[in-house]
Amino acid sequence: MxxxxxxxxxxxxxxxxxxxxxxxxxxxxxxxVWSVAVVWVDGRWMDLGISSLIHQLVGFALGLLLVFxxxxxYDRFWEGRKLWGGMVNECRNLVRLAxxxxxxxxxxxxxxxxxxxxxxxxxxxxxxxRGTQARYEKAESDxxxxxxxxxxxxxxxAVATEMTTVLRRAHERGAFGEMVxxxxxxxxxxxxxxxxxxxxxxxxxLPFAYVVHLRRALFVYCFTLPxxxxxxxxxxxxxxxxxxxxxxxxxxxxxxxxxxPFGTDDNDLPLEDICVTIEHNVLSLVGLEAGxxxxxxxxx
Length: 300
Fold this sequence. Notes:
Blueprint: H1 9-12, H2 21-44, H3 53-101, H4 108-130, E1 133-136, H5 145-150, H6 155-172, H7 178-203, H8 208-233, H9 236-258, H10 271-285, E2 296-299
Helix pairs in contact: 2-8, 2-9, 3-4, 3-7, 3-8, 3-9, 3-10, 4-6, 4-10, 6-7, 8-9
C-alpha cells in the first residue's frame, strides 16, 4: 500500500505509481485513435454525427453503475482491513492471556512455543490468501516442524491446530483449568474465523454478469462518443473523448484494483507490515529479542 498525505495535493498529483494510468493506457489509446479516425472521416468523406441525447441518458445510468461497482469493491477492501485488524487484536490477546495463566518457568517452553506459533499465524494466513508458499528460515530454532506446518495444504489451519495442541498440553500439566483452556482456545477459533472471512472475499468476486455488462456498456459508450461530439467540437472531440474515457475507465479499474485487497499491488492492504507488527508485539511481550524473530520467505 502506498502511504501519502491526503492534505498535500502536489505531492502525489502527478504520480503514476498506484494511479492505474498504466493499466488503462491501452484502452485510452484505442479510444483516442478511434476518435481521430472518426473526426478525419467526418471531415473528409461523410457526416458521421449523431444526436448527443442518447449519450446523456446512458451516461447517467453508466455513472450509477460505476458508483455501485466502486462502492462494492471498497466494501470488500474495508472488510478485509477489519478482518486483519481483528487478527492483530486476537493475536495480542492470546499471548497476553497466556502470559498471565502459564505458571512461571515450568511452562516457559510451552509459552514460547505458543508465542512463536502466534507470530507465525498471520504469515501463514497471508501466504494462504496469496496462493504462495512460505518457508521457515530460522536456522537456530529448535522448532523444525514449523516449516512442515507452513507446507500443509491449509497452513493457517495447521498452525491453529498446533496452537490448540500446545494449550491442551499446558492444561494437562495443570497450568490452568478447563475454563481457561476454553477461553484461550476461543482466541484461536476467532483467528480461524478471520481467515475464513478473508477467504470468502478472495474466492467470491463480483457477479460475472454485472462486470461483463458494465464493461460492455463502457466500451460502447466511449467508442460511440465521438459520433455524438464530432459535429459540435470537431477536432476537440479527441480531447473530450480522452477525458471522458480516462474518468470512466479509471473508475472501473479502481474497482478492479481494490476488490481483491490481499495481493501485492500498490493499492492492496499492507499485509507484510501487519504481520511484522504482530510478530514484534507478541514476541516482545514474552521477552524474545529481535534476533529471535521468525523469518519467512516466499517461494516461487
